[in-house]
Amino acid sequence: MRAVKNLLVLYTGGTIGMLETPEGLAPAGGFEARMREHFAQMADAPQLHWTLQEMNPLLDSANMQQHNWLAMRDAIVEAVDVAGHDAVLVLHGTDTLAHSAAALSFLLLGLPVPVLLTGSMLPAGAPGSDAWDNLCGALRQFEQGLEDGVQLYFHGQLLHGCRASKLRSEAFDAFAALPRHRDGERATTLPAELGYQHPRQPVNLAVMPVFPGLQAGHLRAVLDSGVQGLLLECYGSGTGPSDDQALLDVLQAARQRGVVLVAISQCPEGSVVFDTYAAGNRLRGAGLVSGGGMTREAALGKLFALLGAGLGAEAAEQWFALDLCGERA
């Protein structure tokens, strides 16, 4: 950890910088001036040197898409490798904050600077807002020193970028890292195509929960839509309707044509351990790869980064099973 001397604040939109419009709160530009004005009025303002860059377009994070993740990745890589910034703070809306933190964790593997994401539940300037506390708290994390890699700061908590989830929609302590079992062997080296300098492409991914009444036709409709990877949210330790041979046949056929199938637990404190039940073993036999104790956000972001790097199904499964940045270990 080292002192940060040249911070980039990457403003993507989100509640933190929203202003009221006739249609309701919406992202607004000019946030750098508002930040500097607020800090000028503080007796103990953060003393970091920083510059702000606005993404275009600014987003309500409910509209976040893969191409926005890639644009953030490109902006961060350029800021570090070209402009010489030694840290990046990303201001982001809360709806998809944990998803973006996880995705960037895998898109920026090996980046030699710390990246921190934060946002707020109420806009800066709103009565009782948490915006300035979160923003100043994040800046003070850089003053104290942060390890390289992607992390999330919210309501006084510093969370691993691949372990955070949004649990509450109406409270300032909206984010937490729930205890989930870690089971992955750490990758000792990474291929060049998984490093932060390697560009990525959009990937056709789908997420589907297992539920009583799930039919083979439901899965077939999703898998036949051209998806390259499916994240299946299973019961408990990785079980599902394993007595439905038609459903298993759909999964097996998809895997045989190159679709990567990943299983995670839909329990907030769950982990996939296929060997626990015969039902889990049958899903593994149909081609599913265990996501262990990864969150939905982490598993989706990892699948996106692996397939987006151009890896084939077998290579993606191999790297998915390994811990790349602390998501499984």
UniProtKB/TrEMBL annotation:
SUPFAM superfamilies, sorted: Glutaminase/Asparaginase
PROSITE patterns in the record: ASN_GLN_ASE_1, ASN_GLN_ASE_2, ASN_GLN_ASE_3
Ranges for domain Asparaginase/glutaminase C-terminal: 206-320
Alphabetical list of InterPro entries matching this protein: Asp/glu_Ase-like_sf (IPR036152), Asparaginase/glutaminase-like (IPR006034), Asparaginase/glutaminase_AS1 (IPR020827), Asparaginase/glutaminase_AS2 (IPR027475), Asparaginase_C (IPR040919), L-asparaginase_C (IPR027473), L-asparaginase_I (IPR041725), L-asparaginase_N (IPR027474)
Active site per database record: 15, 94
Pfam families attached to this UniProt entry: Asparaginase, Asparaginase_C
Spans traversing the lipid bilayer: none
L-asparaginase N-terminal domain boundaries: 7-178
Database matches in PANTHER family: 60 KDA LYSOPHOSPHOLIPASE (PTHR11707:SF28), L-ASPARAGINASE (PTHR11707)
Family membership noted in the UniProt record: Belongs to the asparaginase 1 family.
Name of the molecule in the record: Asparaginase
